[in-house]
């Protein structure tokens, strides 16, 4: 994982048979890129196998977003950038937690930084990110219990052995008011370097009462203990608060009809006030030690410890009620118990609905610990080479906390709210004194793995395979009842693949990989302790042409996840009858991806992708929040450094997200006598949308630079996501200006 790599550096070493000539060797845990390839081009990654690998040799799709690309598009959260990568799209919460869909699987409460997975309630601040590496599909080396769709790994910045730095300030309509600093200082040439990056954001969002605050700072150092041994240590601290920009959907929204903000509400409507937010503070410490033991043997030791304190609240409206507080009977939309489809006859109406507002207040403290070690043995023969990687990883996570029920404080003495009334003000909430749930969780895992790569016939044929042996433990204590449960599992997970290069610039590849997630028992539904395995077959074609200035991948993938347990649907018919045993099912995700990065000249850089796939359960039912068609393209142009427009560059891009179902509950209908229960279908579908954005950058001199970024350039009104009966409307056209001073 590039995370594993320290700042790319080469050490000159004398080989016994070189008679004084120097051989420059790059650490196998570092990546090296050529500026001649283009601003958005990357040739290597370390996130697929913990060591550096040429993208042309990988048996899985790996995408890399460079620092230049992240800067050009004005990245404020990871989703801004990864939406241009094939197979990645928004999910049900676009504002916090860096939630996204990867080949149809949601990375809920799981982000990956420098290869270490962690749970977070807020978005990672991009000021700490150097580049983003995305590994598609199951991968038991980097994430044996990770997301079947893949891993989005943010690689953090590292100290550099040159004095440099910058400060900047951003202003804009929304999501702006931000200051950044990045200062690098060489204490001793080729020996010790220090770097500090940090950012402070205090911005308003488009909707009333909505805002984002984040203070993040990460000091770090790199110390070269010897010419072949290097240590990097980082400490990151942040304190962040963010609110969700959701609004009630029309009470008549059903299928593809009336999918918009509830009638009578403005587009910037706020249901609750500023206290309804997500907050998190954290301190993290990372270290990375690499050493070249011999000319063939290298090692890496990496570790992380993190402490987090989180709280979150979310207020939602009830089903519509009448003026007396009774649920409307009948409701405007109703489920057909035989088909599971939601329906509205177009006649049943309620022009003055009332709502109760309720939710929960969650408070959780977490601790994370990780330790990883890898040994790499490389051998170069006549026309062939071999790389053997062996290592282990330990992971620990504990958390303690729970939630309390909350409800809106009365307004004018009433807990019934007419949201369209002009006197309505964003609600505050009252939290119950007693816990509704409070638990302590403990998770541990242990991994030992072996990974082998053989490059044969002068690099024409590449064979690779790995074996990862894993042990998982999960313990849970109900702090209210005092009861405890624990679950354990073991899994041996293989992967294998082949790459055949028709020419050095054209390669065919095939890969097979597995993962296995430790599931959670649910005795009430007769669900036993279990694991949920997944596997992927992937094949495709890669091209690297014009000295690397064009890199493109065509791929087909087929992911299947088994062991998805759920309560027996028969139990929904008569809850008082003896419970039937739980049942298992599977889900699949399969389709095509295309992506490319191209720099036809040194002034032009383009990146783009297209995805078409199916993410379905075994009944061919689509999953909520997953768009099965997506596309994106971004291009930039920099004027010649000697012309009259020198210092000026601009870029423009567009991203497309296809229609997708909103929340569809996993419960079953209670049908009339003689009919089998069926799953509830999606209440409504979110329409497809295309968002256009642009930038213009002007460098006045070697110190001063200005950048104008315009989000939603065409000022389109669309829906980004949905949760329950609320939707996330788009932010209107949003220009943001950044002034940067570099030293």
Automatic annotation (TrEMBL):
Signal peptide: none annotated. Belongs to the TonB-dependent receptor family. It comes from the Bacteria. It comes from Cephaloticoccus capnophilus. Keywords: Cell outer membrane, Ion transport, Iron, Iron transport, Membrane, Signal, TonB box, Transmembrane, Transmembrane beta strand, Transport. Residues 55-151 form the TonB-dependent receptor plug domain. This is TonB-dependent receptor plug domain-containing protein. Its main location: membrane. Pfam families: Plug, TonB_dep_Rec_b-barrel. The keyword Signal applies. The keyword Transmembrane applies. InterPro entries: Beta-barrel_TonB, Beta-barrel_TonB_sf, Plug_dom, Plug_dom_sf, TonB-dep_rcpt-like. Residues 308-321 have a biased composition (Polar residues). Residues 308-330 are annotated as: Disordered. GO terms for molecular function: siderophore uptake transmembrane transporter activity. PROSITE patterns: TONB_DEPENDENT_REC_3 (PS52016). GO terms for cellular component: cell outer membrane.
């Amino acid at each position: 994982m590039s995370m594993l790599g320290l700042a790319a550096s080469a050490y000159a070493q004398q080989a016994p048979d070189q008679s004084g000539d120097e051989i420059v060797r790059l650490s196998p845990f570092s990546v090296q890129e050529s500026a001649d390839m283009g601003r958005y081009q990357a040739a290597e990654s370390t996130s697929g196998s913990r060591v550096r690998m040429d993208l042309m040799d990988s048996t899985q799709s790996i995408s890399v977003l460079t620092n230049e690309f992240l800067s050009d598009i004005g990245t404020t959260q990871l989703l801004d950038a990864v939406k241009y990568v094939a197979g990645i799209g928004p999910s049900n919460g676009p504002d916090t937690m860096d939630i996204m869909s990867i080949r149809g699987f949601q990375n809920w409460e799981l982000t990956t930084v420098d290869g270490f997975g962690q749970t977070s309630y807020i978005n990672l601040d991009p000021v700490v990110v150097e580049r983003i590496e995305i590994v598609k599909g199951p991968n038991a080396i980097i994430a044996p219990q990770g997301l079947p769709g893949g891993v989005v790994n943010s690689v953090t910045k590292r100290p550099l052995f040159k004095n440099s730095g910058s400060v900047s300030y951003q202003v804009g309509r929304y999501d702006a008011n931000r200051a950044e600093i990045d200062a690098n200082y060489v204490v001793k040439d080729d020996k010790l370097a220090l770097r500090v990056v940090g950012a402070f954001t205090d911005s308003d969002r488009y909707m009333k009462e909505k805002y984002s605050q984040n203070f993040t700072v990460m000091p770090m150092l790199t110390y070269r203990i010897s010419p072949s041994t290097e240590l990097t240590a980082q400490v990151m601290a942040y304190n962040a608060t963010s609110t969700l920009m959701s609004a009630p959907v029309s009470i008549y929204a059903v299928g593809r009809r009336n999918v918009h903000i509830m009638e009578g509400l403005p587009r910037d409507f706020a249901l609750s006030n500023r206290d309804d937010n997500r907050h998190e503070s954290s301190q993290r410490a990372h270290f990375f030690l690499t050493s070249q033991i011999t000319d063939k043997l290298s090692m890496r030791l990496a570790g992380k410890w993190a402490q987090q304190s989180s709280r979150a609240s979310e207020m939602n409206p009830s089903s519509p009620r009448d003026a007396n507080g009774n649920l409307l009977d009948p409701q405007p939309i109703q489920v057909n118990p035989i088909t599971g489809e939601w329906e509205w006859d177009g006649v049943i109406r309620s022009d003055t609905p009332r709502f109760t507002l309720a939710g929960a207040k969650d408070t959780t403290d977490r601790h994370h610990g990780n330790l990883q070690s890898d040994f790499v043995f490389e051998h170069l023969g006549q026309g062939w080479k071999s790389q053997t990687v062996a290592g282990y990883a330990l992971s620990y996570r504990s958390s303690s906390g729970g939630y309390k029920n909350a409800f809106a404080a009365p307004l004018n003495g009433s807990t019934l709210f007419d949201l369209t009334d002009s006197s309505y003000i964003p609600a505050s909430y009252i939290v119950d004194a007693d816990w509704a749930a409070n638990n302590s969780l403990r998770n541990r895992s242990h991994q030992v793995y072996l990974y082998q790569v053989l490059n044969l016939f002068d690099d024409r044929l590449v064979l690779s395979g790995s074996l990862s042996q894993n042990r998982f433990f999960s313990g849970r204590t109900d702090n209210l009842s005092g009861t405890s449960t624990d679950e354990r599992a073991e899994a041996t997970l293989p992967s294998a693949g082949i790459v055949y290069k028709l020419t050095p610039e054209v390669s065919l590849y095939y890969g097979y990989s597995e993962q296995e997630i430790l599931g959670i028992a649910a005795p009430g539904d007769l669900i036993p302790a279990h694991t949920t395995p997944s596997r992927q077959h992937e094949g495709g074609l890669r091209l690297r042409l014009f000295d690397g200035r064009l890199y493109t991948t065509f791929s087909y993938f087929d992911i299947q996840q088994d062991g998805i347990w759920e309560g027996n649907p028969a139990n929904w018919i008569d809850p008082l009858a003896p419970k039937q045993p739980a049942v298992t099912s599977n889900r699949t995700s399969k389709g095509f991806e295309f992506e490319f990065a191209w720099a036809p000249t040194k002034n032009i850089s383009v990146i783009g992708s297209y995805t078409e796939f199916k993410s379905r359960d075994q009944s061919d039912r689509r999953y909520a929040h997953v768009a099965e068609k997506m596309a994106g393209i971004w291009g930039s142009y920099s004027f010649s450094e000697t012309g009259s427009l020198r210092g000026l560059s601009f870029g423009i891009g567009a991203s497309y997200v296809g229609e997708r179902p909103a929340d569809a509950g996993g419960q079953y209908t209670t049908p009339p006598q003689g009919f089998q229960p069926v799953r509830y279908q999606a209440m409504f579908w979110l329409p497809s949308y295309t968002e256009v954005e642009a930038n213009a950058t002007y460098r006045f001199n070697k110190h001063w630079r200005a950048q104008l970024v315009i989000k939603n350039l065409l000022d389109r009104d669309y829906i980004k996501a949905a949760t329950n009966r609320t939707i996330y409307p788009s932010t209107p056209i949003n220009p943001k200006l950044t002034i940067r001073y570099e030293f």
